[in-house]
Amino acid sequence: MSAQSAEGSILGYSPGSPTVLRILLGTQLRRLRAERGISREDAGYAIRASHAKISRLELGQVSFKQRDVADLLTLYGVTDPDERAPLLELAKQANAPGWWHKYGDLLPSWFEVYIGLEGAASTIRTYENQFVPGLLQAPGYARAVIRLAHDSAPSEELDRRVALRTIRQQRLSGDNALTLWAVIDEAVVRRMLGGPDVMRAQIEHLLEMTAQRNVTVQVMPFERGGHAAAGGPFSILRFPERDLPDVVYMEQLTSALYLDKPAESEHYVQVMDRLSVQADSPADSRRFLERLISV
Q1: How many C-beta atoms lie closer than 10 Å to residue 289's C-beta?
Q2: 91 by DSSP, 3-state: which?
Q3: Which of 68, 162, 172, 205 would give a disulfide with 47, using CB separation of 3.0 to 4.6 Å?
C-alpha cells in the first residue's frame, strides 16, 4: 500500500475496524438467539436491558460489555469455553475507538456508526438530490455545505469538520479503495453553493474523481421527470465479509435510519438499479459536467 494507504490503515480503514467487529459479533449473537427461539425481550431481561438494546447490539450500533456477551452466550447455550473465548475476545476488540474518535465532539452518535460502516465497506452506491455526496466534495464546496447546518460555528470548528470529510475521502484511493457509484440529480450541480468559483471547482473535482476506475457518477437530468427514488437520498453499503448484510443508510435532520434486513435492502438495490438505467450514462454525465463549466 502507498503512504496514503498506510495512513488509512492507521485510521482504521480495514476489515478489522471496530464497527465491522461489532456487526460481526452482533450477527453471531442474533443467529444464536434465533436458533434457540429466544425473543429479544427475554434476551434483554437476561442482561438487564430492553429489547431495543438487544436490537442495537445485534446491529452493531452500540458497544458491547463483555459481561453482557457472556450472559447472552450462557442464555443461548454456548457453554464450551473454546466456543465462548473467540466471541468474548471479539467483544473486547470491538470496543476499541475508531480513528474518528478525536472528532467525537463534532459527531452525533448515529453518524459515528455511518463513518465506521463507510470505512469498512467495499462498495457504496448512493443517490443524492441536493448535495454532492460527501466523499466527492471539494474542500470549498464541503465548507459551504457544512456552514448551512453550522452557520454560527467558529472558523476553527469549520476547519475540523472539513478535515474530517477530507480524511473520509481517503477511502477512494489506495490498494483497497472503495468502489463508489453515485447517481446525482441535476439540481445538485445546478444549485449554487459557495458562489460560482466554488461550484466550478466542485465540478472540476467531480470530473477528476470520475477519471478513477473505482468512481462512477451519473447525472439524473431534469428532462427525465419523476424517477424511482421519489422518497429521497439513500446509500447502500456492501462489505467484503460474507457474514455482513448490505446496509441501507438514510440520513435525516437529527438522526439516521439503518436497514439491514435482506427484504428491505433488496428493495433499495432494485431502486438503485432503475436509477442507473434512467440517469444519463457515465460518459454522457461527464460530457454534461464539462459543458457546465465551459460556459
Answers
A1: 19
A2: helix
A3: 68
What's the whole-number mean pLDDT along residues 8-22? 53
The pLDDT-based confidence of 295 (bands split at 50, 70, 90) is confident
Question: Is pLDDT at 10 greater than 50 in this prediction?
Answer: no
CATH number of the 18-94 domain: 1.10.260.40
The three state secondary structure string of 170-220 is HHHCCCCCCEEEEEEEHHHHHCCCCCHHHHHHHHHHHHHHCCCCCEEEEEE
CATH number for 100-292 (one of 3.40.50, 3.30.870, 2.60.40, 3.30.70): it is: 3.30.870
Give pLDDT, residue 1: 28
8 Å CB contact between 80 and 91: no
| β-pair partners for 215 | 180
Give the separation between CA 230 and CA 220, rounded to whole angstroms. Answer: 12
Going by the DSSP 8-state scheme, the letter that residue 83 receives in this structure is H
66 within 8 A of 34, measured Cβ to Cβ: no
Q: Where are the beta strands (DSSP E) in the chain?
A: 123-128, 179-185, 215-220, 234-238, 247-251, 256-259
- Which residue has better confidence, 83 or 204? 204
Domain layout of the chain by residue ranges: 18-94, 100-292
Which burial class, exposed, middle or buried, applies to 67 when counting CB atoms under 10 A from its CB (0-12, 13-18, 19+)? exposed
List pLDDT tens digits, range 94-116.
887 777 878 888 988 888 888 88
Quote the pLDDT of residue 243. 66
